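<context>
A single protein, sequence plus fold
<sample>
Here is the protein in question:
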Amino acid sequence: MPSYHYGSSSYGGQRQRRRTPRGSRVLAVAALCILAGGIVFGIVKGVGLVRRWVHEVMDDPQATKTGESLIPGESTEDETDYSALIRSADAMALQYDYDGAIALLQEVEGYEKNEQLSAALTRLKAARSELARIDINKVCHLSVRSLIADPAAAFGSADKDTLAANYLTVAEFEAILEKLYEGGWVLVDIGDMAHPDANGFFVSGTILLPKDKKAFVLSVEDLVYYEANAGKGFADRLVIDEDGDPKCTMRQSGGKTVVGDLDVVPIVESFIKNHPDFSYKGARGIIALTGYDGILGYRTAPKYGDPSSKDYKPAYASINVELERTEARMVAARLKELGWRFASHSWGHINMAKAELSRIKDDTARWKEQVVPLIGSAEILFFDSGTDIGSWRAYSAENNAKFAYLKSEGFTYYCGVDLTTIPWVQLSTSAAYLRQGRVKVNGTQLTRYPERLAPFFDAAAVLDKARP
């Protein structure tokens, strides 16, 4: 009989294999499949969650606006469209304010990482590097008076010769602006020439322009619309239209009132709108005022409301002086907002060269009492044609009592008339003032002395055919 050996793998002398039941093998395979499926499901689910999170962040306007990282720990470039901001900067640069334009773009946090801003800044800085500093001693000053808006009325009046000699027509002034622009002249503010610095010292200013440009100051004297010129072809007054733009009104001979660009201020405003690069950093001109007939066409002087005044006329009874002052104040405020400066031409249009100091003090007191409340303070003083309070030598408070007084009253810019040395500029940092000679542009200069205007334009090319 065969024998059994426990603990041995042999059976009947041969090796035997243990066999796993069939059902157990099926269970094992099923378990593996379930495990593998769970792992795959987890991976797919996880990827889906990540994708959904990414899309949520990408769709978040705050994330794309601020340039926050889509994945924690990483950074991305700001994708905001800065086209509008860059256009604003370019508008500033068009008027040569490159420093302001550059500063505007650099206000954006992280501007270095934005391609739009970086490209614009590179372009603006390159253009700024091409600018040249203007010598303030070469800045000219052109000065005009109110314009003849109706040549037929002016040159048909009994005063036609006087009007033709002292005034330009609207057509002539518009032609002059075009010629100045074509010639590379740029309008600058007198304060750009010299001004107090942060420490209170009166110093030369910095005017930066392209190398082919030249700087000039523009002024209009006696912008009062005198009673004596009523009905002789001049505008009646300055007004502000519904768009905030200065315009002039004029009552025509038939009784109709027209509104438009009928004098220096509105014409200059319209010209700068069409040619922004004509103005340096938004500069406008200087408006020099007397006070005895009011200002800007408004009857603001005391005589218009005081029947006891020796200058009162019965026709003044219909004038509401307080309303005139309110309207004049509103117009003046808007002009200052636009960049126009005001100057004193003395209250009574006096000759300060011949006037005693006592009369200058009385006249200045009237100016401060009647005009300053309407326009605010003024730092500029205009002398009448051919007059001044001193010689060509520098003013000194020690030996010029008139200068000492006027300086104490706040005047730091003094503008006489000089037709022999063009330009004429005198800056004193010690006495803290700037003097500048004005070149008068009127009918006499156009027709009799065109050579004086030759550095600026061809006088023959701007003459109005209506001029007698």
The first helix runs from residue 22 to 58. The chain is about 35% helix and 15% strand. The CA atoms of residues 62 and 280 lie 39 Å apart.
